[in-house]
Amino acid sequence: MKIKVNHQYKQALILRTDLKMSTGKKVAQGAHASVIAVEYARKYTPAIHQAWGKEGQKKIALKVTSETDLLQIYQEAKDAGLPCSLIQDAGLTQLEPGSKTAVAIGPAKAEQVDRITSKLKLL
Q1: β-bridge mates for residue 60, sequence order
Q2: What pLDDT does 20 receive?
Q3: Alpha-carbon distances of 61 from 2, 15, 83, 91, 92, rounded to whole Å
Q4: pLDDT 10s digit of each residue in the chain, 123 long?
Q5: Residue 5: helix, strand or coil by DSSP?
Q6: Half-sphere exposure of 96 (CA within 13 A, CB side)
Q7: Distance between CA 49 and CA 43 in Å, rounded?
Q8: Which one, of 88, 113, 91, 116, lies nearest residue 102 by Cα?
Q9: Can you tell me the distance from the alpha carbon of 51 to that of 64, in angstroms, rounded to the nearest whole number?
Q10: How far apart are CA 35 and CA 43, in angstroms?
Q11: DSSP 69-116
Q12: What is the pTM (predicted TM-score) of this model?
């Protein structure tokens, strides 16, 4: 029997598709974004961080097609007061130094994350 879990909290990882990153590079950039946002949440919203952890740390991977779109999503999350991070690549492998590659939003209440990300498509 499968038990349905009602997730109240989630994290969204948003990656740029216009940079043509390899799959491994996308995973690394998303992981960087996730860790930084989670550390922020652990420090500033510890109750939400704990609840998200107990629910299984739900994440969703989404995409944008430009730096402008990525920066807009990041700004919306900041303006909403949500834990978030913006990743800029060091430029050691595939990308130019300073390339903005990924954003993480949350962990936060799912409806707050959805207000910002619902228009985005799955990665």
Answers
A1: 12
A2: 87
A3: 24, 8, 16, 23, 24
A4: 565 667 899 999 999 999 989 999 999 999 999 999 999 999 999 999 999 999 999 999 999 999 999 999 999 999 999 999 999 999 888 899 999 999 999 999 999 999 999 999 999
A5: coil
A6: 4
A7: 9
A8: 88
A9: 28
A10: 12
A11: HHHHHHHHHHHTT--EEEEE---SSSS-TT-EEEEEEEEEEHHHHHHH
A12: 0.93
Amino acid, single-letter form, for residue 119: K
Can you tell me the distance from the alpha carbon of 20 to that of 27, in angstroms, rounded to the nearest whole number?
13
Q: Which residue matches tokens 């109240």?
A: 8
Residue with tokens 């989404």: 62
CA nearest to 10, candidates 36, 39, 48, 40: 48
What is the length of the chain? 123
pLDDT at residue 1 in the model: 56
How would you class 56 by CB atoms within 10 Å of its CB: exposed for 0-12, middle for 13-18, buried for 19 or more?
Answer: exposed
